[in-house]
Amino acid sequence: MKVIKPVPITDVQFVSSNVPETDAPEWNAVVNYAVGDRVIRTVTHKAYACIIAGVDSTLPEESVSLASPHWVEEGPTNRWAMFDNQVSTETVKASPLVIAIKPGIINSLALINVSGVSVTVEMKYEGEPVYSASRNLDMSEITDWYEYFFAGFELISQVVL
Fold it and tell me: What pLDDT shows up at residue 74?
């Protein structure tokens, strides 16, 4: 058995993405929020929902641990959901989804709970490509005319490189 030890992706390792971090408005200490209003904190890359109406200057990430919190954490923002080590959260974006990270020294990559047609990974060192791999995620096998017209698609949801 081989184990791929996760490398946490933080602001230090994150370079860029074409997924905006605009799930909801950024939290503002002077806004009068209603119950159910959603906000994000780009500092923590989390989304929060208001559970007590009114103005509250306590940061949402600090409020969640109070005896009477004004906010409840809903999870990571869409941009950062792919990095939270939970397979139940996904980053959703129409194709293509493009990200760039600097994880440090690595020798493997696992993409879990992936949904799409294909995956392309390119690793560069000092701007020069040193590794490139593409995987087709459609593993449907058509063996006759009936399957051509009526069979469903079989997609791979995990890729290990």
Answer: 93
DSSP 103: -
* Cα gap 146→118, rounded to integer Å: 25
Q: How many contiguous H segments (helices) and E segments (strands) does the chain have?
A: 2, 9
Let me know: does 24 contact 38? Beta carbons within 8 Å: yes
pLDDT (tens digit per residue) in 22-49: 999 999 999 999 999 999 999 999 999 9
pTM of the model: 0.81
Compute the 3-state secondary structure of the chain and give helix, strand, coil in percent, each to the nearest 5: 10, 30, 60
Q: Specify whether the CB–CB gap between 13 and 104 falls below 8 A.
A: yes
* Neighbouring residues of 121: CB distance < 8 A, sequence distance ≥ 6: 109, 131, 132, 133, 134, 161
